[in-house]
Amino acid sequence: MIAIIDYGAGNIFSVKNALDYLGLESRLVSDKESVKAADAVILPGVGAFPAAMKKLEATGLVDTIKEEAARKPFLGICLGMQLIFEKGYEFEECDGLGLIGGSVRKMEEPELIIPHMGWNKLEKLNDCPLLENVGDNEYVYFVHSYKAHCEDKDIAAYVEYGGRVPALVYDGKYVYGAQFHPEKSGETGLKILRSFGDLIKLEYKQ
Fold first, then answer.
1. Of 83, 63, 67, nearest to 176 (Cα)?
2. Cα separation of 186 and 171, whole Å?
């Protein structure tokens, strides 16, 4: 079962609908026990970094998320992806979950339209299980004004928008983050979510 964390800051129903479409068992959860019992975890999110972290802290799930992300597949989506980094700088400096090293800062290229909204082409950088079924000319859907700053080794794929924008990050173990919305990215997004679901089966085979 995939736990979709419901902390009042997420695009939870579109994610749930996409998983249902793929036949992947999932539940909306907001308690520690359900997160611990799940085979994999998804952290969605829309809104502002500090407010989202405060909501997560209010649920008491921050330590549980850190513990579970060290032992089972974990996927942050959009703001949920940004929260997996060490720091965010939206309105104020704010600690994140620290699952991957790096920070999240406003996109300030003057020639660009911000937010970055619409379809953009994924460019693969490093091997990642979620990209095994994704080709070289596939597009995904973005809506964001902040981007991650992290080491290249943690970037599985990026897009070009006034420079390189990390689109999919991966710690090489269990933690994944998608700046785009796979649940709104058509067949490409469904392939990525299906590959995330397949990680559960791989865990059982070990």
1. 83
2. 25
Three-class secondary structure assignment of 74-136: EEEECHHHHCCEEEECCCCCEECCCCEEEEEEECCCCCCCCCEEEEEECEECCCCHHHCCCCC
CA distance 136 to 66: 33
Average pLDDT, the chain: 94
Q: For residue 114, how far is the Cα from the chain centroid?
A: 20
Q: What is the largest CA-CA distance in the chain?
A: 49
Check whether the bond before 115 is cis (ω within 30° of 0): yes
Q: Under DSSP, is residue 26 helix (H, G, I), strand (E, B) or coil?
A: strand
Which residues belong to the active site?
78, 181, 183
Q: Full-prediction pTM beyond 0.90?
A: yes
Find, among 159, 160, 140, 151, the residue nearest to 77 by Cα: 140
pLDDT tens digits, 10-19: 779 999 999 9
What is the number of H-type helices and E-type strands within the chain?
6, 14
Which residue in this structure is represented by tokens 């989506």?
77
Burial of 49 (0-12, 13-18, 19+ CB in 10 A): buried
d(CA 140, CA 21): 18
